[in-house]
Amino acid sequence: MKQILIIFLILTALFESGHAQQKDFFFTTSDSVQLYVHISGKGKSCLFVHGGPGLTSYIFEVTPAAKTIEQRMHMIYFDQRGSGRSGSAKNDDYSIKRMEKDIDELREFLKIQRWDIMGHSFGGILMTAYAKDYPEHVRSLMYVHCTLNMNSSLQSHIDNGLRLLEEQKDTIKVDQQLPKFDQMIAVHKELAKKGIEYKIMFSSQAEQDMEDSLISASTPKLNQDFQRHVWKISEYFENYISYTSNIHCPVLVISGLRDYAVGPEQYKLWRFPDQRVVLYEGAHTSYQEKSTWFSEAIFNFINTLH
Fold it and tell me: How far is Cα 235 from Cα 82, in angstroms, rounded to an integer?
């Protein structure tokens, strides 16, 4: 009995110090939203901020790349409020300030003073807003195929979708009076008819099928409440590129040369003072398609941190 108690106390101490090997739990925010959290790995603490908007960290956390990274980093995965395996906000508060507060309340709960933050796609907006408002708690930022300007990324979907259709000898007209989101949906419908929708985000149809299967496997019922709200919240459509010049921590940018989901050249407008850029010969999910390449890019970056 005494031996069991000692083991329990050791495991508890490890978790409270931010270095548990693995842990799954629900964290309750100050406004009573339950956020799903999965912790795995060892080393410096790193928060993963998933994209979507409104998807789940599951599609990253189960990849071979994530498992490799966990050998050297203490990874903290969570699903944002109204997303994936997490609960919804009863008062429909999906503001970016509330999202930032969720992140910092989780940090405080885990007793982490400073952490690295890695984000994918739409997650770039959340992590940039957080780094701007909580710089004292950020050691570094890792942008994995991220957007900092949603309007620009929607336009990339539209323009490159139309180009891909033209390559198939299929020219369509899109009503430019429609909101950009509706224009994007119209283009994606035509791409799907041609069987080439995957080319916006993936290197092959098989890669898209893999991500779709992971989304389905993440939970019996994926929470999409945030996804239903986000398109009507104007602050997510601000240009967050304008904040980059005032964020002074080390920054890694991984950008795909054929990543039409966020725009393959958007990163060229970013102005982080301490920025390193790594280009991927592919699209939007290098961590899924080239896991060894991806983990090496991450390790090369964290090796430069103090």
Answer: 17
| pLDDT score for 21 | 59
Would you state the pLDDT for residue 15? 41
Please choose, from the candidates 33, 42, 50, 117, the residue with its C-alpha nearest in 3D space to the C-alpha of residue 84: 50
What HEC string does 119-133 produce?
EECCHHHHHHHHHHH
For residues 77 and 50, what is the distance between their CA atoms, to the nearest angstrom? Answer: 8
20-149+203-302: what fold? Answer: Rossmann fold (3.40.50)
pLDDT band at 218 (very low <50, low <70, confident <90, very high): confident
**Residue ranges of the domains in the chain?**
20-149+203-302, 150-201
The pairing of beta strand 22-28 with beta strand 275-280: unpaired
CB 80 within 8 A of CB 99: yes
Percent of the chain past pLDDT 70, that is, above it, reads: 93
